[in-house]
Write a structure and sequence with these properties.
CATH superfamily of the largest domain: Aldehyde Dehydrogenase, Chain A, domain 1
Pfam families: Aldedh
Helix content: 25-40%
Largest sheet: 7 strands, mixed
Shape: globular
CATH topology of the largest domain: Aldehyde Dehydrogenase, Chain A, domain 1
CATH class of the largest domain: Alpha Beta
InterPro entries: Ald_DH/histidinol_DH, Ald_DH_C, Ald_DH_CS_CYS, Ald_DH_CS_GLU, Ald_DH_N, Aldehyde_DH_dom, Aldehyde_DH_Superfamily, Succ_semiAld_DH
CATH architecture of the largest domain: 3-Layer(aba) Sandwich
Number of helices: 14
Distance between the termini: 73 Å
Number of strands: 20
GO molecular function: succinate-semialdehyde dehydrogenase (NAD+) activity
Protein name: Succinic semialdehyde dehydrogenase
Keywords: Oxidoreductase
Number of domains: 2
Radius of gyration: 23 Å
Bound molecules: NADPH dihydro-nicotinamide-adenine-dinucleotide phosphate, glutaric acid
Length: about 475
């Protein structure tokens, strides 16, 4: 028995249903109930009923419950971290970090709940007042990915509950146990059960269809692939839901010749290899100016060669398995295509033996836009390095993608910092920084990378409606 089992309600388990495995070992962690349509519909109806009383509480009361949920998550940090590592494979140190990061959204939105201010607008005529109210949108649904099984949930549930909404969640098939553990802790924190319910299913597309078609659900927030985001957007047209999408990326990381190269290599390591390269903001393309190209590649290769691949639960492991065999096949296919077109392997470039889908941390040089790896989200531990000559060329290469989530660049020139920051067509830009994620800043993308923002003071707006009231007869 692992230590996290008391965090998952015994009712969730069954003999046949959704099988959850450890990607590092292939061992079965649990088999969970495959919920029926009527159960899913009942969860939606109960969530809708419960939200009315929840919204009528003071913001301070809702905030207290969210804070209690945050505290319980932190009190169970080690158990949750072990569960995250078991389900999604990331090294334990990263999993511990995810628990703290995930909890921070609850603390943040507990505070923001108290700051949902309306407006009084100077009226256009005498004897009238214009009031703007902000009200909870209603029942919300979330569909979340496996790469951050905890933080991607709290980033949505925090603002939803803070705003006075309820939330129905469909987590990724690979990582439902962390979601169920969050559900348990929410209930222990005193959040009424129907307000945050997890759907376990083996039929994501079918359940996604139910959520999109439901008129009761007024808001859908999704994090995952751009392809699925587009399906959900189409399916939500008939119910005119408010949507937020945090989708794929193709992040450039530009190293200019005036950069601090050691700092750039530090930034590259944390940005590229976090979660074995499986985050939407991981660098997909390093663009390095010709005169510093060899230095950067040599320093990066040295650091990458020292990384340790293995089961994330083992001491010292810095790169865990990819989530499944399909992910490994995708990385290999991209590597084969790139090498056939002239790319060179400076480090890694091969599978690593084991029961899981392990791939060696890799540095691939002389990458060009003709290679599929240049334009596809790699979602693996492969750094591709592209050579450029001028600032204009770097910006053009960086923007030559349908995606627009995160971008990074390193320079010590102030003027260049402003120029490049403004020219990059991305929702988030790290300037001399490789990690940009924090609950206090707006996370989200432009172009095919999504709609809306999560976290920060803006994140709660996704769960609020603006109501304009014209009050007359006041003379
Ligand atoms: N932006 C990001 O953070 C992420 C980007 N990705 C990108 O997507 C690629 C594929 O990863 P993958 O896990 O398959 O991502 P998906 O977009 O398929 O999965 C994300 C979530 O959507 C669910 N889902 C899948 N299909 C549907 C559907 N038709 N209707 C409703 N929900 C659905 C999944 O359920 P289930 O898991 O049960 O299939 C999961 O909960 C990755 O290689 C990466 O490039 C992936 C994850 C996160
Ligand atoms: O990959 C994602 O979808 C989330 C990125 C994690 C983060 O930095 O918030």
């Amino acid at each position: 028995m692992t230590t996290w089992t008391d965090l998952v309600n015994a009712d969730a388990f069954t003999e046949q249903g959704l099988v959850v495995t450890n990607p590092a070992t292939g061992n079965v962690l649990a088999t969970l109930r495959d919920m029926s349509d009527s159960e899913v519909n009942a969860i939606i109806a109960e969530a809708d009923l419960a939200r009315v009383a929840w919204a009528s509480l003071t913001a301070k009361s809702r905030a207290a419950k969210l804070k209690a949920w945050n505290d319980l998550i932190l009190a169970n940090q080690e158990k949750l971290a072990q569960l995250i590592t078991a389900e999604c494979g990331k090294p334990l140190a990263e999993a511990r970090g995810e628990v703290a990061y995930g909890a921070s959204f609850l603390e943040w939105f507990a505070e923001e709940a108290k700051r949902v201010y309306g407006d009084v607008i100077p009226a256009h005529a005498e004897g009238k007042q214009i009031l703007v109210l902000k009200q909870p949108i209603g029942t919300a649904a979330a569909i979340t990915p496996w790469n951050f099984p905890l933080a991607m949930i709290t980033r949505k549930a925090g603002p939803a509950l803070a705003a006075g909404c309820s939330m129905v969640l469909k987590p990724a098939e690979a990582t439902p146990l962390t979601a169920l553990a969050l559900e348990t802790l929410a209930q222990r924190a005193g959040i009424p059960a129907p307000l945050f319910r997890v759907i376990t299913t083996t039929q994501p597309a079918h359940v996604g269809g139910i959520l999109c078609a439901s008129d009761t659900i007024r808001k859908l927030s999704f994090t995952g692939s751009t392809a699925v985001g587009k399906i959900l957007m189409r399916q939500s047209a008939d119910t005119m839901k408010k949507l937020s999408f945090e989708l794929g990326g193709n992040a450039p990381f530009i190293v200019f010749d005036d950069a601090d190269i050691n700092a750039a290599v530090d930034g590259a390591m944390v940005s590229k290899y976090r979660n074995a390269g499986q985050t939407c903001v991981c660098v997909n393309r390093f663009l390095v100016q010709d005169s510093v190209y060899d230095d950067f590649v040599a320093k990066l290769t040295e650091r990458v060669s020292a990384m340790k691949v293995g089961n994330g639960a083992e001491e010292g492991v810095t790169v865990g398995p990819l989530i499944n065999q399909a992910a490994l096949d995708k990385v290999e296919k991209l590597m084969t295509d790139a090498c056939e077109k002239g790319a060179k392997i400076a480090a890694g470039g091969h599978r690593v033996d084991g029961d899981g889908a392990f791939y060696a941390p890799t540095v691939l040089t002389e990458v060009t836009p003709e290679m599929a790896i240049f334009s596809n989200e790699i979602f693996g531990p492969v750094a591709t390095v592209v050579r450029f000559n001028t600032e204009e060329e770097a910006i053009a290469i960086a923007n030559a993608t349908e995606y627009g989530l995160a971008a990074y660049f390193y320079t010590q020139n102030l003027g260049r910092s402003w120029r490049v920051m403004q020219a990059l067509e991305y929702g988030m830009v790290g300037v001399n920084e490789g990690i940009i994620s924090t609950e206090v800043a707006p996370f989200g993308g432009v172009k095919h990378s999504g709609l809306g923002r999560e976290g920060s003071k803006y994140g709660i707006d996704e769960y609020l409606e603006i109501k304009y009231c014209l009050v007359g007869g006041l003379t």
